[in-house]
Write a structure and sequence with these properties.
The protein is mainly β. It contains no helices and four strands. A hairpin with a 6-residue loop joins strand 2 and strand 3.
Length: about 50
């Protein structure tokens, strides 16, 4: 759980984009599920020996 007092989402219609803030009506803290995905990758920085 991730405790927070609010969060923003960007309105994608129109220009410029406008942020919308979401909070509890009484401004009390709330909790959201925090999802985590670990991604691993390898990068070769030199040419392979043939």
């Amino acid at each position: 759980m991730v405790p927070l007092t609010g969060f923003y989402e960007w309105e994608t219609t129109g220009k410029p984009k406008q942020p919308s803030r979401f909070t509890m009506a009484d401004e009390q803290p709330l909790a959201l599920a925090g999802l985590w995905e670990f991604m691993a990758c390898s990068a070769i920085g030199v040419a392979p020996k043939l």
